[in-house]
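How a chain folds remains the central question behind the approach discussed here. The record that follows shows the chain in one-letter code together with its fold in token form:
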Amino acid sequence: MESDYDKAFKILVDLNPIDWALLTGLRTVSSAVGMETDLPERNRYLDRLIRVSNSHGELAVHLEFQAGKSGNRVPLRLLDYSIGVTEKHRLPVHSCVVLLHKPADSPVLTGAYKQRSCGVLPYLTFRYRVIRLWQIPISTLLQPGSSLAVAGVLADYESFTAEEVGLRVAACIDAISDIDTRTVLYMNAYNLAGLRFNDGKADIMFGRNISMLEKYSSTIKATLRRGEARLLLTSAEQIFGAPSQEILDKVRSAKSKKLVEWNVRIRTAQSWTELIAD
């Protein structure tokens, strides 16, 4: 089942795919765009997949977010995903697991998975990147206008207090001119703070910012609904192609509950018509 952590980080990657691709260790990124995350032949759904272009060509960056305690199963799963992505998209894959907090860690997450036969050298070595978010200094994520700043809520605070981190993350979010995007980022920052600490600490870190935004937008729910509609249209267009005006109108006027239902259905639908059927 998808966790609150998973939902938050998928939204963050979709907002700034270049920044997240660079976080995985790539030195240069010319362009980055989200890709389909389903592997129907394997009945698998990846967390996030980004098509990256740089001076060396194109590759797929796979980001898998791990919050649960099944880290020992991650390397083999990443290998399976990597093979599936290459088969489907004919691209080399840079695999990266992002561990969101310490309970998700495991001794087997070394960055290399090896298959051995008895008495001989490994016949297969698969390498992947491991990011332990709580070990990343918050200062490296505080990029104005980038969703990476929100991920800093789960990072190493260095010498900062939680309240100081809240102020610095807020400054990065406020560098974004679009109020809908700012609202989505503040809501995710608030939720991550609540997951790391508690709702009381989240209120101290970001509650004031959310209250201020409510004064300038009609309601927080309406703003989030527009964000959900935009996310659905962006994701589904990669699979089904450009939507008709009739579909655009239907999605943009849909209520939040229906948008959530359609976002879940995108994994099994075969067309726009099937996706947004009532």
Q: What stands out?
A: The mean pLDDT is 88. The radius of gyration is 20 Å. The beta strands are 31-34, 38-39, 44-45, 48-54, 57-66, 93-99, 112-115, 124-127, 129-132.
